[in-house]
Amino acid sequence: MPQDLLREMVEQHGNAIYRLALRYTGDRFLAEDIAQETFLRAFARLQSYDRSRPAAPWLFRIALNLCRNRLRSAREIPVGERAISGKANPEAEPEQAYLQQETEQELAAALQALPPIYREVLILKHVNELSYAEISAILGLNLSLVKNRLYRGRIMLRQALQKGECKR
Amino acid sequence: MKKCPGPLTWQALVDGEEDGARYAAHLERCPACRAVYNEIREAAELAGRLRCSAELPPGFAGAVAEKARTRLAPARSFPAGLAAALLLAAAGAAALLLDPGFWGWWLSVGLTRICSFLMDVFFELIYLGQDLNLFWLLGPALGFILLEIAALKKLKSVEEY
Q1: What is the pLDDT of residue A7?
Q2: CB–CB of B158/B104 below 8 Å?
Q3: How far is CA B12 from CA B5, B7, B18, in A?
Q4: Confidence (pTM)
Q5: In this predicted complex, what is the ipTM?
Q6: Taking CB atoms and an 8 Å cutoff, what residues of chain A touch B52?
């Protein structure tokens, strides 16, 4: 049953897709919307999907395309005004919660400042914890390009974070 | 190992994509490589802060399944649209075949009632089929309105007769 397959896919990959979209856009509501649209698109194309192959790379590809498109149209919204993912720990002290939120916002801003080609590799590696080979299959890049982008992406992220710290 | 491996090799080692034992000895005796390795490891640790544990709200799977069901509805509700179109065609044919006169007058009045009844049925069908496609909604509605006008015209001609 396609409905059962859809439910299974959501239960298995829903959070991973949501986290990817959340880090990519920095917006909770947009990320939820992207996650939903990812599964709806997958559901609409179930007929053409080869079920012997793993669903995750296919879903990640759909989600990444949606993120790219949505962000292109929402580019004018500054990161600071979006509903950032940084949910403060409810048990933390107010000061600690504030710092935690601020750090999260800095991280989100630094990630948003990166060109998408580096941001995507970083998210797939660090948020979704995928291997080089998996990232290469999702993005359709060769392994050395994945390694290169990851290397440069990490350096750029560090520089962006350092720049943010200097501004404070 | 005579030649120093490049930074991408050290990165692969940091990410667990290379066999550590193969490079351990070199890393031990080469301070330049050790510096590169440490720098990459620190950058990777910093990027590791991107990891997040956010979860979708409960009920998300159900909401997606429900949305998928309504998106599929246009294909399922086609018979509703088809039935409405057939009713429209039948009513239209009846209106065209009517002649002004005793029967015509009676039927024209009846036709007005039938038209409103058919519109109700049509909108019910649309509602039950969950198809809110604008074409299916407005197309037959327009047809019914035209039919109504034709019926009223016929009624007027009957009164004049």
Answers
A1: 87
A2: yes
A3: 11, 9, 5
A4: 0.67
A5: 0.80
A6: 19, 22-23, 85, 127
